[in-house]
Amino acid sequence: MSLHKSKDPYADRCPIRDVLERLGDRWSMLVLFTLEEGGTLRFSVLKSQIADISQRMLAQTLRRLEQDGLVSRTVYATVPPRVDYALTELGASFLKPMHGLLDWAKAHHQDVHAARRAYTAPEAIEAR
Amino acid sequence: MSLHKSKDPYADRCPIRDVLERLGDRWSMLVLFTLEEGGTLRFSVLKSQIADISQRMLAQTLRRLEQDGLVSRTVYATVPPRVDYALTELGASFLKPMHGLLDWAKAHHQDVHAARRAYTAPEAIEAR
DNA sequence: CTGAATCCGACGTGATACTG
DNA sequence: CAGTATCACGTCGGATTCAG
């Protein structure tokens, strides 16, 4: 989502924006779900499991999730360096309602696809 | 989210992307919630209720929601023209799990804000 | 291994003006 | 009233390069 940053006058009406703006990017959910599945994972493991994420975006995504308190980061002062990532309690609690959405998407994404295929643009109707 | 479009190799693992990519923009959720509250609403009413949305983005958002089958669009051939928008059953069913997220956000957005304030960038620690 | 820095193109969004 | 068209700008994300 580009739920871009904003001086949103609806923050009160839509407190969800405060949070979902940050999770609505290309990778956050995928990282969270991967951590949920895999438990504590190293940077390189996350990278390989998500596969098509770039190093840059994985690092950036993890920073934000860490900053929001959804993911914990543990650095080991070894050579080579090792960094473990895991869900925090807050992060795990977030995924619960998120699974509700996931279930909905699984159940209805075919309906959505069908609607997209059946859709005819308003203009196109009278265009000919 | 810029859950931008993508040739996503994780569509199977993350079917939620198919759907949430589209809902993850700046206005979709707000429009859906507004329709949930207000029932059937005209374009101008939606515009005034959301207030800071531009005509362009409202129209674009409604097109996408309509295309995905979440919102219905009814045109009356009157002068001046009148167009009603309302949630479809699919749209209403989507909002149910979405409220789970909303509740989480309401319950925890303070935790998130607290985490953000408490956060110190990794570099900043050893930077001085 | 785990990043950060930079360059760059693509897309989302807003402002404005125009139309049926 | 209910849109569409055009332009300009900002951010996101990918590729690449450099570093501890």
Summarize the structure.
The first copy, chain A, has helices spanning 16-23, 28-38, 43-50, 55-67, 89-118, 122-126; strands at residues 41-42, 71-76, 82-87. Chain A has 128 residues and is mainly alpha-helical. The first copy, chain A, has a three-stranded antiparallel β-sheet with strand order 1-3-2.
Q: What characteristics describe this protein?
A:
homodimer; 128 residues; mainly alpha; Arc Repressor Mutant, subunit A; three-stranded antiparallel beta sheet; 59% helix; elongated; DNA-binding; DNA-binding (chains A, B)
Describe this structure in words.
- Chains A, B: InterPro entries: HTH_HxlR, WH-like_DNA-bd_sf, WH_DNA-bd_sf.
- Chains A, B: Keywords: DNA-binding, Transcription, Transcription regulation.
- Chains A, B: This is Putative HxlR family transcriptional regulator.
- Chains A, B: Pfam families: HxlR (PF01638).
- Two copies of one chain form a homodimer.
- Chain A has 128 residues and is mainly alpha-helical.
- The first copy, chain A, contains six helices and three strands; from the N terminus they run ααβααββαα.
- In chain A, strands 1-3-2 form a three-stranded antiparallel sheet.
- The relative contact order of chain A is 0.11.
- The model of chain A is unreliable at 1-9 (pLDDT under 50).
- Chains A and B meet through helix 1, helix 2, helix 4 and helix 5 of A and helix 1, helix 2, helix 4 and helix 5 of B.
- The structure holds a DNA duplex (20 and 20 nucleotides).
